[in-house]
């Protein structure tokens, strides 16, 4: 098996300290399995021949143990089956491959360091019966049972034969001079109990031949151990198709969880908007009307104070509802919501976002909160005087960006993706471990199979780039645009808007400080 090269570069920028050391993992100097070890010149002087011998010897011991346990279990279960007591024991025999496979996965590390994890499914319900039914329905359980039967009947005798021929016979020949000096009183010695050696020259010659055979036997042990490990991995390791099926199921379940989470967010936002907010509005109006009916005095002052407090509570609740799931995002899409977020930012933000239509709700929500968190980080940590949000939708027809801002190569043909780039002219040095929320942003994007990259050298600028694979759910219709709405201070001019062209929807914002 050819060796493979694993190279991985990990870099992280630290505020004010420059880039951290780039860690490069070079190809491993030690082989990962016995086949790789045999292809190198130092095999005979390494520990791999001894590991191969230990693997085969422990296989003989384990095989004998499995054979005795299997025969005993079947015999006892068959005898007791007459009175129905042995039927559960016979039923449990089907699962005898599970512990054997667990032991084999541990023994496999002697000659193959690559992991061979089990891929048994988690039972749908707790309890022994659910666990038993789940195991019986799995293909891996039956493959492990077949491996156990093959192990108990055929494999361990073959391993014993290989160890005897490749290790014990040459070792016995190498010890011929010692046998001649001790057992044979210097006159004669038996070689493998077949040939008689009567002199020291012949004994030394047999010993030299034994050493040569030991060298050859080391490779025989390696080949036998490698073949045995390969067969074990074939039978008890999960197949590629099974792993793909589990990956597909995990992906689908993750999508269902994301959709359920977004639906719950929208429900909470709707309940707050239609319930608590309406009550606070009614309370504020009632207090306002009461102020009109009360003459000036201490009671009027208390009503005025309560009216102001109710107004502030209403404003805070509106901000909370907007943070949970902004209505402008649900009604008018990502472009308008990003323009609205830029309008709220304390740092002037230029927005140039081109979208030909609506995206899936989970993608729009994730992208919106990524932009909001990035703008919040810019306002809190960067010291920037200006920021910009650019991006668009790449339909993936040519594998490029389609001419959209923020696009780039790397997309698969026929696979669309949303591309966002948030840039600021601040001090740079963004640290993912510094509590700035960058790790949370990466987690939010990765749930949708997206990618988040950060470039923030000390001194700036900082560039946060997000790519999320998605498809359009609907194209832009003929309905005119609506200016993003949101609370702002009285008298503050709004210089952001949404413009729609025949080529798609575009939100352009240029908010002055």
Automatic annotation (TrEMBL):
Residue stretches in coiled coil: none
Listed name of the protein: histidine kinase
GO molecular function: ATP binding; phosphorelay sensor kinase activity; protein dimerization activity
Native species: Streptomyces poonensis
Residue ranges with Gly residues bias: 392-414
Keywords: ATP-binding, Kinase, Membrane, Nucleotide-binding, Phosphoprotein, Transferase, Transmembrane, Transmembrane helix, Two-component regulatory system
Catalytic activity as recorded in UniProt: ATP + protein L-histidine = ADP + protein N-phospho-L-histidine
Transmembrane regions: 52-72, 78-103, 145-169, 200-225
EC number(s) per entry: 2.7.13.3
Biased composition (Low complexity): 496-513
One Pfam family here: HisKA_3
